[in-house]
Amino acid sequence: MTEPTFAKQYDVVIIGGGAAGLSAATTLGRSLRSVLVVDDGAPRNAPADGVHNLLGSDGMPPRELVRAGRAEAEQYGVRFVSGRVAAVTPGFRIELVDGFRTRARRVVVATGVTDVLPDVPGLAEQWGRGVVHCPYCHGWEVRGKRIGVLLTSPMQLHQVHLFRQLSEHVTVFAGDPAMIDEEARALLRARGIRIRPEAIASVESANGVVTGVRTSSGEDVELDAIVVASVVEARIGFLDGVGLAAADLVVDGLRIGSQLPASTMGATSVPGLWAAGNVTQPMATVVASAAAGQMVGAQVNAELAMEDARAAAQQ
């Protein structure tokens, strides 16, 4: 339902209230811009126990980081509304699923991505805890433990060596042995990484903790953590009305997801519509996303300042 105390138009509407969106909001709020943040309360990293490599806040729970960031932005007059955007249409009219409507002079998209996981029973339930993907986000927490890698593409082999840096007990479950050529196989063996030709049929847990996997051959293997590579899909379906669509993210000839195309400064092909964080850089960590949000906030404010100056000169 429309909240009557909200303005009909803002200088900037930011879609997404994670690290990138909150950083952009704070930067714009400190510049005395009227800002509204629309957030659906579903941050990508919500399942994780803590955010890492974030200077001064290492280990802070993701939702606590969002709460603190939101409180900081509110100090500078930034407004928030809970909900999911249904559509952005020309003239930067923003409509939420629940019917809330407003307009903006500029829009910042910071909705992030959705992680699409391999279809393995028991895997999704442990995502962000016993099932991990990033050695820099979760590696310290699984150091020295028994780690199994669910190999889904040859490109993932670099991930295996990064986790081997953290533990001597790494096993690769190839499923399709053709994904590992002779050179790659030699490198794995040189590092003492075990190679199993079976796929992982299911992830086994007890009392909320990963205990191992069951292979496609029916064998139970005891493990403490499972490494996977998700497919990352940009959350931008609501931008169809302004002609923006996700582009395939391809690395070494393999599609690993999608992203919203944008310049290094965050400008999209639609003038006045900017993007920051994982939605345009799916591999960015929290600290990188926050930095991108700050940069985009500064760019948007500068653009608006020049627009304000030109409008004043015409009076």
TrEMBL record:
Gene3D superfamilies: FAD/NAD(P)-binding domain. PANTHER family: THIOREDOXIN REDUCTASE 1-RELATED-RELATED. GO terms for molecular function: thioredoxin-disulfide reductase (NADPH) activity. Keywords: Flavoprotein, Oxidoreductase. It catalyses: [thioredoxin]-dithiol + NADP(+) = [thioredoxin]-disulfide + NADPH + H(+). The keyword Cell cycle does not apply. Residues 10-291 form the FAD/NAD(P)-binding domain. It comes from the Bacteria. It comes from Humibacter ginsenosidimutans. Transmembrane segments: none annotated. InterPro entries: FAD/NAD-bd_sf, FAD/NAD-binding_dom, Ferredoxin-NADP_redctase_2. This is NAD(P)/FAD-dependent oxidoreductase.
